[in-house]
Amino acid sequence: QAFFCLLLCVPWGSSCPPSCQCTERAGAKAVLCSSRHLEEIPKDIPRDAVFLKLDANSITRIPSNAFRHLSHLEELDLSRNAIEKIDRAAFKGVAAGLRTLDLSSNRIRSIPKEALLALNAKLRLANNPWHCECALQEVLWEARLDPDSVQDITCHTAPREEYVGKPLLQVLDAGVNFCSVRQRTTDVAMFVTMFAWFAMVIIYVICYVRHNREDTCKHVDYLKSLPSTQGHAE
């Protein structure tokens, strides 16, 4: 009876993943999972966790709703992993309360802007092999980036070779606008498509007129070949 009473008295949110260490920090629960060779985010993180450290692991992806049950989460450290993909709804459920999010030193080339722009957290995105594009530019302008790390957001790849290896902020300060480049590309594609359709219509009309002209000529020739009424009368 004492055993079952103990089970009922212990809140489910107070359990700790076997690969992590749970402790108190300034009266708030901290879950420490650093350097534990984790390949994915643990499923049994306590619901009352305020600080969560998952740095220095081998996590490759942040799936949708990965932290949705952690409504008290304020600080999340995912630095020094092997993260390549972040889903659009990766931080759904923690966007309002999260204060800091560290994604530095991963393998992130691109990220859906929806995943970050909903956050109020201070972001660290440095030391990733970024592909400089419109979505990353919008994150830089609209998200709350850590000012100490923004210079380390570097273009690993870019539409033009001259931008490669340069800090994204420096490229944008020089007047480059990746979003306008994408818009021009879209406009050109639309123009080419419209021109192709117009050309097809013109070709169809020409073929139609030419075909009708040939039929008319054949009909006239046929009529000329018929014996005239006068010839029959004689």
UniProtKB/TrEMBL annotation:
This is Leucine-rich repeat-containing protein 3. The chain crosses the membrane at residues 188-209. It is found in: Membrane. It holds the Pfam family LRR_8. It comes from Tachuris rubrigastra. Residues 15-51 form the LRRNT domain. Belongs to the LRRC3 family. The keyword Hydrolase does not apply. The keyword Mitochondrion does not apply. Keywords: Leucine-rich repeat, Membrane, Repeat, Signal, Transmembrane, Transmembrane helix. One of its GO terms (cellular component) is plasma membrane. It comes from the Eukaryota. It is a single-pass membrane protein. Residues 1-22 form the signal peptide.
